[in-house]
Specification:
232 residues, alpha/beta, Rossmann fold, eight-stranded mixed β-sheet, two-stranded antiparallel sheet
Length: 232
């Protein structure tokens, strides 16, 4: 059986709805947290699939989060080897930084359900499953598109929502894995100030999560199923 390693940067941002397609594709699912004493020595080259999930920290906060430098170095080595790698939200920003692109605070908080718009390349990729489907956004940071990568989708607020490099690297700024996971309650409780800055509130996010979450997760699972089937 193939091996999938999911890196959690906080305990309330796990694989969520992505776990099912990963296991359905024949991967043994295991995870490691960045605060685990073993994380510093975790081998990023060994897994058949590496999945980098989200988190509230910024890639540029390296003094506050000293594990970031080591993680970036291991991500860069894995990508250079062409090994299958998926990044979600912070994970997409870590991949961008590992490829030499700048990561920085964006002009606004993007929080809540909204569609992303795949471009021509995106519509020819697994990202097309997210077309016209509002998905969860929860970030205030963004990044330059890394050299050698292909932009796949944008949102009304941020140009860089999905990108890839070849068949084996996919990065998603949005959260198509979230929509049925009860840990959204922690996101909400920890993100009151961010929601207010984005012009939304707890009642709106909870209502939209109940209504829009299941279709978003279904689209996210379809995306991931197709991407995994196309790995080289």
């Amino acid at each position: 059986m193939r091996d999938a390693l999911i890196v959690r940067h906080t305990t309330f941002e796990g694989a969520a709805g992505f776990r099912q397609p990963i296991e359905d594709a024949g991967y043994a699912f295991r995870r490691i947290d960045v605060h685990d004493p073993a994380f510093g020595d975790a081998d990023f080259m060994a897994p058949d699939l590496l999945v980098l999930m989200g988190g509230p920290m910024g890639v540029y906060e390296r003094a506050r989060y000293p594990w970031i430098d080591g993680e970036l170095a291991r991500i860069a080595a894995r990508i250079a080897a062409g090994l299958p790698t998926l990044g979600v939200c912070l994970g997409s920003q870590l991949i961008a930084a590992a490829l030499g692109a700048a990561v920085y605070k964006g002009p606004v908080q993007e929080i809540g359900f909204a569609p992303i718009m795949p471009n021509v390349a995106g519509m020819a990729s697994p990202v097309r499953h997210l077309a016209d489907v509002p998905v969860l956004h929860w970030h205030g940071d963004t990044f330059d598109l890394p050299a050698g990568c292909e932009l796949l989708a944008s949102s009304a607020l941020y140009a860089h929502q999905a990108y890839r490099r070849g068949a084996n690297l996919l990065a998603l700024q949005c959260h198509p894995e979230m929509g049925e996971d009860p840990r959204i309650g922690v996101w909400i409780s920890e993100g009151q100030a961010e929601m207010a800055s984005a012009g939304t509130d707890e009642a709106t996010v909870r209502r939209d999560y109940d209504r829009m979450g299941p279709p978003a997760v279904a689209a996210g699972r379809a995306l991931l199923t197709e991407w995994l089937a196309g790995l080289e």
